[in-house]
Design goal:
This protein is of the alpha/beta class. The chain has two domains: 11-45 and 300-392, Aspartate Aminotransferase, domain 1 (Alpha-Beta Complex), CATH 3.90.1150; 65-296, 3-Layer(aba) Sandwich (Aspartate Aminotransferase, domain 2). Helices cover 46% and strands 13% of the residues. Helix 7 (188-201) links the parallel strand 5 and strand 6. Helix 2 packs antiparallel against helix 11, helix 4 (99-114) packs parallel to helix 5 and helix 7 runs parallel beside helix 8. The longest helix has 33 residues, at 298-330. The chain binds pyridoxal-5'-phosphate and (2S)-2-hydroxy-3-(4-hydroxyphenyl)propanoic acid (TYF). Residues 11, 13-14, 33-34, 127, 129, 180 line the site of (2S)-2-hydroxy-3-(4-hydroxyphenyl)propanoic acid. Keywords: Aminotransferase, Pyridoxal phosphate, Transferase. This is Aspartate/tyrosine/aromatic aminotransferase. Residues 27-389 form the Aminotransferase class I/classII large domain.
Amino acid sequence: MFEHLKPQPADKILALMQMYREDPRDQKIDLGVGVYKNAEGITPVMRAVKAAERQVWEEQQSKAYTGLAGDPAYSDAMINLILNGAVPRENVAAVATPGGTGACRQAFELVRMANPSARIFVSNPTWPNHISILNYLGIEMVPYRYFDAETRGVDFDGMIEDLKQARPGDVVLLHGCCHNPTGANMNLIQWQDVVNLINEQGLIAMIDIAYQGFGDGLEEDAAATRLVASSVSECLIAASCSKNFGVYRERTGLLMAISADASQTALNQSTLAFLNRQNYSFPPDHGARVVTTILGDVALRADWQQELEEVRLSMLGLRQQLADELQRLSGSDRFGFIAQHRGMFSRIGAAPELVEKLRVEHGIYMVGDSRMNIAGLNAQTVPILAQAIVEVGV
Ligand code: PLP
Ligand code: TYF
C-alpha cells in the first residue's frame, strides 16, 4: 500500500530552518521560524516554567490519565487569562489540545461537524498551517483581503468588502493579536466594525490567539478577543501557550467554544471531548500543568509576567532600532511600518527574488513571502540587516 503514497508539500518555514542549519557561513542570520530568541540567539526555558516544573516533579504523585478535556483547572486558568470575565464561565466549553495547532484542527473539525456547508474565511495571507489543515479536511476556504502591500498595514476597506460576501453560518478566522505572517493588526475600532458585520450577517467568529503578551501587553493583546467573545452569539477561540510560556515542544493549547446561550455549553463541552477522543484521546498534560501552576501561584505568575514583558519589550526595541536604521540608510520613512507592526513578525513586502538575494548574498534567512522574525535579531545584527535590505533594493 505504501507505494500509493504521494509526496506531500513540505512546510516552507520548516524547510527554511533546515537550509539555515546547513549554511556553513558564520555571519548568517536566522529570521525564519517563529520561535523567540534572546540576544544570544537562545530560546530559553522561562524562569517560572523551570520553577513550576520543579514543583510538579516534586509534588506529582501519579501520571494516570487526566480526562478527555485535560485538567479542568488548566481550562479555568486559561479562560481567565484570555477572557478575564468577559464571558460568564458557564457559557464557555473548553478542552486542552496539543498546542494551538491542535486547537485550530479541532475547531475546524467542530465547524465541519456542526455545519458541513460552512466556509471558512481566512485572511490573505494567513499562517500556512491554517490553509494546509483546511485543505486536508476538505473544508472550503475563502481568502479575504487583509494586508495592504502599499502601506504594509491592514487593508481594512478591502477586508470588510470581502467579508460582506460571507453567507450566514460562514466562519471568519481572525488572529487575536500579532498577526502571522504580516505583523499588521486592526485597532479596536476596526475590530468593533468586524464584530458588527459578523452579527449583521449571521457569521461565526473564530479567533486564533497564539501570541498573547507579545504585542502591546497581556491584557491589551486579549482585548480584541474579549470584545468578540462578549459581543457575538457564538464563537471559537484557539489559543496557544507555545510562545508566551515558551513551552513549544510540550504542545500546550486550548480550544474554547462559546455560546451566548449557556444551555448549549454542556453539548459543546461533550462534543469537544468527543473530538479529543477521536483524534488522540487525552491531550498532553505536562505543559498544561506547568501553565496552571504558574497562573495559580502569585509569585510564579508575577515572575512569568515580568519575563514575558522583557521578551515583548526586547522585540519592540529591535523593531524601533531597525526602523531607525532603515530611515537613516534609506533617507526615507518608508520602513516606519516595522515599528508599527506588533508581535514576532513583520512582512517587509520584498519580492521573492529579493528575499532569495538576501539569503544567497547576505546569509539572511526570512520566509519567502518576506516575513521576518524580529526575535532573530540583536543589536549587532540590526545594522547588518538594514544595510542588506537597502542594498538589495527593497
Ligand atoms: N496559530 C498561529 C497564528 C501561529 O503562529 C502558531 C504558531 O506558533 C500557532 C497557531 C500554533 O502554534 P503551536 O501549535 O506551536 O502552539
Ligand atoms: O509561523 C511560525 O513560524 C510558527 C511556528 O508547521 C511554526 O507558528 C511554523 C511552522 C509549523 C508550525 C509552527
